[in-house]
């Protein structure tokens, strides 16, 4: 059974940076796609960034150039480095591995 443990959310001023980390407890880390999603109040959950089985990263247009996704096989973690944060990035961020979701971590960006 897969377990995801997220960390790294918090409150930051606009223009600041945060790194989210997702520890993935699985035997299939190296052969699966995974990613980060977010959901703002009153909005649908949306893809932020994902990485394919072959290591190809894809970013939403809203975060391209500001966020960086890193898959670390040695520690089975998926990190999301978020730079130049904007108030519209405020949301609950969820790690996803196959059909399993993390509990979510809150990111709040003040203007």
Please explain how this structure is put together.
Strand 7 and strand 8 form a beta hairpin. The mean pLDDT is 95. Helices cover 0% and strands 53% of the residues. With 111 residues, the chain is mostly beta strands. The termini are far apart. The strands form two sheets. Strands 2, 4, 5, 6, 9, 10 and 11 form a seven-stranded mixed beta sheet that branches. A four-stranded antiparallel beta sheet has the order 1-3-8-7, with no helix packed on it. It contains no helices and eleven strands.
Q: Care to give the gist of this entry?
A:
With 111 residues, the protein is mainly beta. The protein has no helices and eleven strands. The chain has strands at 3-7, 10-13, 18-25, 34-39, 46-51, 57-59, 67-72, 77-82, 91-97, 100-101, 105-110.
């Amino acid at each position: 059974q897969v377990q995801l443990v997220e960390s790294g959310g918090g409150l930051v001023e606009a223009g600041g940076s945060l790194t989210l980390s997702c520890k993935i407890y699985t035997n299939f880390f190296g052969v699966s796609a995974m990613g980060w999603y977010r959901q703002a109040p009153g909005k649908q959950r949306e893809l932020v960034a994902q990485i394919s089985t072959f290591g190809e990263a894809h970013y939403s247009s809203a975060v391209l150039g500001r966020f960086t996704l890193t898959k670390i096989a040695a520690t089975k973690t998926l990190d999301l480095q978020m730079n130049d944060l904007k108030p519209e990035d405020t949301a609950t961020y969820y790690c996803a591995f196959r059909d399993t979701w993390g509990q979510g971590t809150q990111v709040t960006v003040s203007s």
